[in-house]
Amino acid sequence: PKKIFLKDYAKPDYLVEHVSLTFALDKTKTRVTARLSVKRNDGAAADAPLVLDGEDLDLVAIAVDGKSLGEDAYTYEHNVLTVRDVPAAFTLETEVLINPDANTKLSGLYISNGMFCTQCEAEGFRRITFFPDRPDVLSTYDVRIEADKSAYPVLLANGNPGDKGDLENGRHFAEWADPHPKPAYLFALVGGDLAHKQDSFTTMSGREVTLQIFVQPHNLDKTDYALDALKRSMKWDEETFGREYDLDIFMIVAVDHFNFGAMENKGLNIFNSSCVLASETTATDGDFELIESIVAHEYFHNWSGNRVTCRDWFQLCLKEGFTVFRDQEFTADQRSRAVARIRDVRRLWQRQFQEDAGPLAHPVRPESYITIDNFYTATVYDKGAELVRMMKTLLGPEDFRKATDLYFDRNDGTAATVEDFVGAMEEASGIDLTQFRRWYSDAGTPQISATEAWDNGTYALTLTQHTDPTPGQDDKAPRHIPVRMGLIGPDGPMVDEKVLQLKEESQTFTFDGLQTKPVASLFRGFSAPVTVKRELDTEERLRLIAQDTDSFNRWATAHAFAMDLLKSMAGQQEMKNSHEALISYAKAIETIITDETLEPAFRAEVLRVPTETDIGRAVAQIDPDAISEARRKFRRGLLETLKGTLSDLYTANLVNDDYDPGADQAGKRALKNAALALLMAEPSDTTAELALRQADNATNMTDEAGAVSLLAQSNRPEREDALSRFYDKWKHDPLVVNKWLVWQALAGGEDALDKIIALTRHEAFDMGNPNKVRSLIGAFAMENPKAFHRADGAGYDLFFEKVRELDKRNPQVAARLLTATEAWRRLEPKRRDMLGSRLKALAQEDGLSNNTFEMAERLSD
Ligand code: HT7
Ligand code: ZN
């Protein structure tokens, strides 16, 4: 397979100013007629051929300026159509046949539950028609869709609606026009028998926009929350970034088969149904929060991605990192800022730090790829967002807003680069970000060592930075790192918060005139995506947990304390007096979880015990059995000290009001369920009874799922019955059944893997649906280390069998599954050899997709 390099970027030889498309929808033979207004680009040679992408297209007709082309005028091979001897400006007409029914890759035009839908990012448009399928070719579009009226009464495309009417033979048509130039990856089309909920939004300049959410008719009662989240997102983007919506209509369509969460197609977002449908009885508070953030994310792309798009796919973080930052800020404003930050950072540690520390490490702006599908990663998305956040910290809120205004205004309607974005930050603020740019080009997580000295009223803090080599990058130069910090004395804060600028390999910062030696609260609010190594004794830790004025750092200090205890229990780290330390830790978190002045959601985060996978990420060598045992002991140790408090917390946080998915009620339920989770560390008859009662009496899915999932993780005799009753109750609802699959994928016990294998044959499982694959195979491989890394290699056998099977059907999803193996080099030797050799064998296999080949090769290299 061919590698593509950032350094080889060249402007396109031809641009397409306008596209007219006609679709005659048919399950197996959809006819796509395209008329492209093509113009030679400035600087292109007069004899440059027109080169278009096309994949799995059956070419029926081709004409230039109305003249049909003979076979000697063009070639179509290896997914490229080349037309020679074309004029400087002309109309190209093509007619192709495609087979949506056979499209199992879910890229291009495909069918989900009898409905036509599309997914064109990153390179799916070429599976619909011949086109320069690259993001720097921007065109206006008009689209006509024809289809059978009874089977597909709803016909949608991007932009504003035009004419519609009936045709012969029971068919009908609808026309759409999108006046905003867009790259082909933002094209979308939907045809199906759909119901919709409608609302409207009046923009800041007084224009009324129709809002519609389309779903299969039986899901119509699950659209209200997404519609409400959409209106709040539109308002927030006007208030926070000055961004107004720009079409007469904004539509969201839910589909059951989708490779990702959702897609920001202009005016016609397509969503994985798991990221849009919610009702109180079927969705948890976590689902509601996720839906809110994804609706916001896709909506925010209308400016950060659509109006200003990416020049090439190496610039993916330009739209994704910035848009994640925007959706994170939205969530922080809608809910609790501290809790939102904890959750975002937890996710960054879980996914991105892991990526940065292994064979898949790559810069936020990668330098090469075989298929860009493999670079929709935590590094591009989540670390990309952290880079925007750091620039905001360096600039301050006012200059940051000036910079985003400048960026949007200057690049509106164009395909931009990271350089345009950082350049706008510099121009609006006068701050030199030359060194900061290394964050975009250098992979790896900087490790900061903090040492301190105290001398007669002067506190000196020395920060040293180092980044380990990553694939293809051996030497790393120091980065520009914003360190938000404060000093905490025995009675509370001692100096005002400061942002230190760490730019050298090592720098010392001094603070004079202090009465007593402080403890530094470093990287407040996680001001930079780095790891910090420092020696803190138990007293200093307890001071930060109890008195830090930065809530994030109170949580982070407690979390680090828990991790050190877990590592020592797993035999991976020395810790003096670990028994006493565990009691100190339990007492420290008890103070927080019982402090009613603190938000319940924050207290719930403090009470949450790191998972086995979390612990695996933090140790030098992964022994899944030792980690599982350490976590079991840790939870039981906490339970011994906190039992009474947990029972009280459970009762005090019962919610009796009508269900509301907002932060207040959700926080209470989170705290109550976190208390129950710890009580279930060693479930007595009474605790199991409590969980059963919660499951049976629940009037919302948060409580029902909270209880059944805990029973599913236990070895209580009630387990099987609780699971089978849950299935019987919900088997008609695929999204709820996915939860049931996840809980069983995560379950422990000697026969855990056998049960997972049995589930792969269950009626609820379907290899053709990515949500099912992720729920069962993904959850098992990523979050059930004991079963996945079973000592006899049977977990690996199941995993690779499924990856191979899936690769034939849906390479994007197969390749993504492989990320579950990225820590294989840190496994204990026996498992490392077993997993490593399977990866190497896969990489050498003939007939793999480019997606899976690229991942297997990078992983095993
Ligand atoms: N921009 C969207 C990315 C996406 C995608 C990428 C590859 C394959 C399928 C896909 N579906 C959606 C989603 C987003 O970040 O908003
Ligand atoms: Zn996005």
Automatic annotation (TrEMBL):
It catalyses: Release of an N-terminal amino acid, Xaa-|-Yaa- from a peptide, amide or arylamide. Xaa is preferably Ala, but may be most amino acids including Pro (slow action). When a terminal hydrophobic residue is followed by a prolyl residue, the two may be released as an intact Xaa-Pro dipeptide. Residues 21-186 form the Aminopeptidase N-like N-terminal domain. Its cofactor is Zn(2+). One of its GO terms (molecular function) is zinc ion binding. Its EC number is 3.4.11.2. Residues 539-859 form the Peptidase M1 alanyl aminopeptidase C-terminal domain. Gene3D superfamilies: 2.60.40.1840, 3.30.2010.30, Neutral Protease Domain 2 (1.10.390.10), Peptidase M1, alanyl aminopeptidase, C-terminal domain (1.25.50.10), tricorn interacting facor f3 domain (2.60.40.1730). GO terms for biological process: proteolysis. Residues 225-439 form the Peptidase M1 membrane alanine aminopeptidase domain. Keywords: Aminopeptidase, Hydrolase, Metal-binding, Metalloprotease, Protease, Zinc. The keyword Protease applies. Residues 444-534 form the Peptidase M1 alanyl aminopeptidase Ig-like fold domain. Pfam families: DUF3458, DUF3458_C, Peptidase_M1, Peptidase_M1_N. Aminopeptidase N is involved in the degradation of intracellular peptides generated by protein breakdown during normal growth as well as in response to nutrient starvation. NCBIfam families: pepN_proteo. Belongs to the peptidase M1 family. PANTHER family: PUROMYCIN-SENSITIVE AMINOPEPTIDASE (PTHR46322). This is Aminopeptidase N.
